[in-house]
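Exam prep: given the inputs below (a chain plus adenosine-5'-diphosphate-glucose), describe the expected output before reading on.
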Amino acid sequence: MKNKTIIVSNRLPLNVSLPENEEENEIKILPSVGGLATGMKSIHQNSDSLWIGWSGIATDDIDESTRNKINKAIQQQKCISVDLTQDEVEDFYFGFSNDLLWPLFHYFTEYTHYKDEHWEAYKKVNRKFAEKVLEYLEDGDQVWVHDYQLLLLPQLIKEAKPNVSIGFFLHIPFPSYEIFRVLPKREELLKGMLGSDLIGFHNYDYERHFISSVSRILRYDVNFNTIQVGRRKVKIDSFPMGIDYQKFKEAAIDNTNKSQEEKSQLKVRLEQHLQVSNDAKLILSIDRLDYTKGIAQRLKAFEYFLTKYPQFQEKARLVMLAVPSRENVPQYQRLKREIDELVGRINGKFSTVSWTPVWYFYRSLPFEQLIDLYTSCEIALLTPIRDGMNLVAKEYIASRTDRTGTLILSEMAGAAQEMSEALIINPNDSNQIAEALKVAFEMPEEEQIMRNKFIQKRIKRYDVEKWATEFMKSLEATKDLQKEKKTK
Ligand code: ADQ
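Solution:
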């Protein structure tokens, strides 16, 4: 039988929706549209593979028969569910993963909380994932584990099946040693990751930070990008995640070719702003509502811009889309309130009868409307305080089919390393952001086209499919390396 790839991530690439009333008894399974789901699509759909993860529904919220129905429906999509209880989700996901690892890896040490019960749940849930993987694993299969919720999983699999080839990819930054060393359980977490044969990061900086943490905390030998773990060698490398370039390009072409009647109401309203004057522009801001994304700082910088350069009042409109995320976490609730207040303050201070400076949407938008925004906004202002990659930056540039538009991007986003032609700013410097906005407003079209041409070429070549296949190729190569060693 052909060997298969087992993909493992905290969430499965689908959303389960339960029947809303007694009469309806159909369980709906919808594919999720996130970057990871898209990225792995080619590997998951076109090859012999299985995806293992949580369905998003806690087992104590449903009865046995519903659980069986969900599992059956999920299996038809080549997915296997790891059952989690409400308490496990609370302590493993909201606790250890998002109240400790997420803030710490993004350098927000002041937001971290460590609790023993969270750590116990993290270990328990990683073991549950391992059991599920081992249940389906056959000789010759390879495993690709994703992200910070499953740092212990590679080691658990490797201990049970030493010959299996395991890849791990971290989607968020790996912090510098001085930050990482603060973490309780740091040795266990590093050893957990080192159960892999290949560990991938978005860029060389994260790779370097990881290697330095391993050599200083565990004192393992490092030779360039290979770490000696007992008798095994673990390869560390960077794989900057891309997007489905073609999908965004084609959608943008369709979008710009629409007749007036076919246009969405959103698109029509966006275009109305541009008719205010020749040099009116829309500034786009899209993120999950998360403190790492620098949304509050971005709003303050926009306020400063309007104050410092009043000539842009009435001409600049910030279209701010914040996708609800982790809404029951107090930190996120406080941030939501702060953003609500800032939007209110800016709109209260500057609005005129014909102009509202900030258009704020707190919701997730369907793909077509996302494209409306990408194609209508001539400036994108993406200023995360820390971000593993930031796919929105790439999606924006891919959607600018006539190559106009200016991207203002934080130097703290992994994506900045591949997009040096964008206006790169420090997200903590309001003055620099205001200056960049002025430059963007005044940038001649030829210059915009010139800059975007280079970025488009790069992100088109290294798209998400390439990212996934390069990773798998590299994992395959580590397998050969082990074989070579044995025959020598
Ligand atoms: P995220 O923090 O979620 O991902 P990002 O990379 O920007 O951040 O991806 C967000 C995705 O959601 C994009 O594909 C975007 O199109 C989509 N999206 C945003 N707003 C939306 C809306 N309103 N409606 C629908 N879709 C919307 C994590 C890391 C990142 C890393 C990715 C991938 O934090 O740094 O780039 O994983 O590794």
